[in-house]
Amino acid sequence: MQHDAWSPTPVLLTVDLVILTLRDSRLHILLVKRGEDPFQGMLALPGGFLNHDGEEILDAAHRELAEETALTSDCVHLEQLAVYGEASRDPRGRVVSVAHLAIAPELPDPVAGTDATDAAWIPAETVLSGKAALAFDHRRIATDGVEHARTKLEFSSLATAFCGEEFTIAGLQQVYEAVWGTRLDTRNFYRKVQAAKGFIIPAGTDRRSTGGRPARLYRAGPKTVLFPPLIRPTPPAEEENTKGEEE
Amino acid sequence: MQHDAWSPTPVLLTVDLVILTLRDSRLHILLVKRGEDPFQGMLALPGGFLNHDGEEILDAAHRELAEETALTSDCVHLEQLAVYGEASRDPRGRVVSVAHLAIAPELPDPVAGTDATDAAWIPAETVLSGKAALAFDHRRIATDGVEHARTKLEFSSLATAFCGEEFTIAGLQQVYEAVWGTRLDTRNFYRKVQAAKGFIIPAGTDRRSTGGRPARLYRAGPKTVLFPPLIRPTPPAEEENTKGEEE
DNA sequence: GGAATAGTGTCTTTAAGACACTATCAA
DNA sequence: TTGATAGTGTCTTAAAGACACTATTCC
Question: What is the distance between the alpha carbons of residues A196 and B112, in angstroms, rounded to a whole number?
Answer without folding.
Answer: 49
